[in-house]
Amino acid sequence: MRGLVRLLQSIPFRVAVSLCLTAAVILLSLLPGYPAEDDAKLLLIVASVPSVLQNTMHLVLYALLALCWAAAFEPGQRPILWAAALVTALGILLESAQLLVPGRYASLWDIGLNSAGVLIGSLAAGSLARRYPLTSSVSDT
Q: How far is the C-alpha of 128 from the C-alpha of 80, rounded, in Å?
């Protein structure tokens, strides 16, 4: 059990989790909006997701991103502020990049949903940080 706690509290592990989630969000954000019939089934499924669910995914994924990145930064270095800034900038960058993707478009509504998700994740990170402070290492005692 101590090994699992040590893993969860290690900054490299938290950064790796944050990077994996970030990669997934980038991939989902830059998929073409109108897939061709011969595209992979996953692309066809993602393209057919109803807009209500897509909007919910904006909130959830960006909240998780903010929460994960807040945990990935070294404690005591304003991790929640840095995470919120990083994830908000990512959301704006990805929305802008969608102008270059066939069948996609940039949306202020989506930027608002992303930002609301960042706010939710940041508030959750603050609450969890007060309740369960993260450290970069675990004592063996």
A: 11
Structure confidence at residue 75 (pLDDT): 75
Q: 106-113: which pairs have CB atoms within 8 A and are 24 or more residues apart?
A: 110/58, 113/55, 113/58, 113/59, 113/62
Task: Identify residue 74 by its one-letter amino acid code.
Answer: E
For 12, half-sphere exposure in the C-beta direction (CA atoms, 13 angstrom radius) is: 2
In the structure, what pLDDT confidence band is assigned to residue 80 with cuts at 50, 70 and 90? Answer: very high
Among 120, 95, 110, 2, smallest CA distance to 55 is for 110
116: nearest Cα among 73, 87, 79, 76: 87
What is the reported pTM? 0.84
